[in-house]
User: What shape does this take?
Amino acid sequence: RKEVEQDPGPFNVPEGATVAFNCTYSNSASQSFFWYRQDCRKEPKLLMSVYSSGNEDGRFTAQLNRASQYISLLIRDSKLSDSATYLCVVKEYSSASKIIFGSGTRLSIRP
Amino acid sequence: GAVVSQHPSWVICKSGTSVKIECRSLDFQATTMFWYRQFPKQSLMLMATSNEGSKATYEQGVEKDKFLINHASLTLSTLTVTSAHPEDSSFYICSAEGGGSNQPQHFGDGTRLSIL
Assistant: This one.
């Protein structure tokens, strides 16, 4: 089983739709969680950190469920510019950081 | 926000050449830097983790003599691809974090390496 698993997609949704991604992680000791987006041929960019209480940034909402070991990302009122690959990132931290990336979920917003 | 600069952004060179890529954290001290490579339509693959002043930790299957990593200061890490061959052509990305369990990574712009 992969340490971090994501549905690879692609998700193809119309502009204005709401879309949600899930990501599961295997290590219950994982401490920090993030969503990144990566555009084609570009580096990943931090979208948002994910907090236990859930957090929202404009049209984006992230949730963490430690009991079930998954995190989610919800995008409301999707825009064409939201088309990208969304990467789930899990961080384990003991004496040093261990960062684990999901393989990414491709999202394509159509007009 | 935190800025990570990576240089060069694009390299084209002959087979057998060694190529050095720099990764700098511009406005924070990076206790840990990471080097990734990514092939087209594939996910990021972690190559190695480097901590300032110590030897890098390489992932399984990554040749340490082929990919030399130096992290001499808290703001600079370098990756040298030695005697590069066409199969080394890829997108190399560095990232840096300042330390702490809840700190995200910040990525450099990436280096597109093409070996002819």
Notes: The radius of gyration of chain B is 13 Å. The interface with chain A takes residues 6, 32, 34, 43-44, 46, 49, 51, 57, 91, 93, 95, 97, 100-110, 112 of chain B (CB under 8 Å). Residues 8 and 111 of chain B are 6 Å apart (CA to CA).
